[in-house]
Amino acid sequence: MGKWIIVAAVALVLLPILFIINPLLLAFVFLTGVIFLNRNYSVIKGAAGERKVNQLLNRLGPNYTLFHDLYLPTEKGTTQVDHIVTSPYGIFVIETKHYNGWIFGNEHNKYWTQVIYKRKERMLNPIWQNYGHIQALKNFIGEEHDAYLHSIIAFSNASTLKFKDDFRSARVTQFMNLTKVLKEWDIHRLNEIQLQEINIKLEGLVMKDKKLQRKVRKQHVQDIQSNRKERVWNEKRLLKQNICPKCKVELVLRDGKYGSFYGCSSFPKCRFTKNA
């Protein structure tokens, strides 16, 4: 964020000068700035939000070690983790969501819903998303630490959480309550040697070289795109064989109100359908 502060300061100095020298040039610069902000709003907003979360986590105290923006190795490339906090009380994997509006969802739905006035947007269930991060971390630091890994989903303070049910596999909270939630775990589970070994492994993933960081991020995006294409191809292949792409079981022909269709044979557990 420091870079953006410098850019803003320079802009404040130069804009009055441009207005005097060439008003048309000022209008062009202003329009270009609006377009840039519109295209990069989510990135800038996310960076500001991550900075805020970092500041909150830094207040936890000396018993906690913080790791931000780590890329954990997986079988298909890497997975990006927003924050990992290690402590004698456990290891916390934190997925942050910089959303406003009302947030609806439950533990078992693939997608959650964000509602802003009458507009609705879908998001991938962040509990499922963070589960993948935890599995990658467990494989990286060792299966024996499974019992000490905790999933936390933290939403922006601008959001309103509208959940009807409690969550069993994760804690879902807001930024303002994040440190309080982490300190709910107050029993020592990891000794000093175990904690040191975990921290050394995670420190090996910290990238201080900006060029290397950009390279890894670019490769990460390419891996995601490649994996998405592979998933779509596999789904098409399974559908041609009349196999449910979700459950990997047979699709059976059924009669419905509007005609025949293929449905998953594990219905009602799975409600996948395709046209006959």
Low-confidence stretches: none
SS-based structural class?
alpha/beta
Total strands: the figure is: 12
Instruction: Please tally the helical runs, counting DSSP H or I stretches of 4 or more residues.
Output: 6
Distance between the termini: 53 Å
Q: Roughly how much helix do the residues carry, as a percent range? A: 40-55%
The largest sheet has its strands arranged as: 1-2-3-7-9
Sheet bearing the most strands, described? 5 strands, mixed
- Overall, the morphology is globular
Q: How much of the residues is beta strand, in percent?
A: 25-35%
What pattern of helices and strands is seen along the backbone? Answer: HHEEEEEEHEEEHHHEEE
Mean pLDDT: 81
Gyration radius from CA atoms, angstroms: 23 Å
Describe the structure.
The protein has 276 residues and is an alpha/beta fold. 43% of the residues lie in helices and 27% in strands. The chain is built from six helices and twelve strands. It has helices at 2-21, 23-57, 126-141, 178-182, 192-203, 210-240, and strands at residues 65-74, 77-87, 90-97, 101-104, 111-116, 119-124, 149-155, 159-161, 171-174, 251-256, 259-264, 273-275. The strands form three sheets. A five-stranded mixed β-sheet has the order 1-2-3-7-9, with helices on both faces. Strands 6-5-4-8 form a four-stranded mixed β-sheet. Strand 1 (65-74) and strand 2 (77-87) form a beta hairpin.
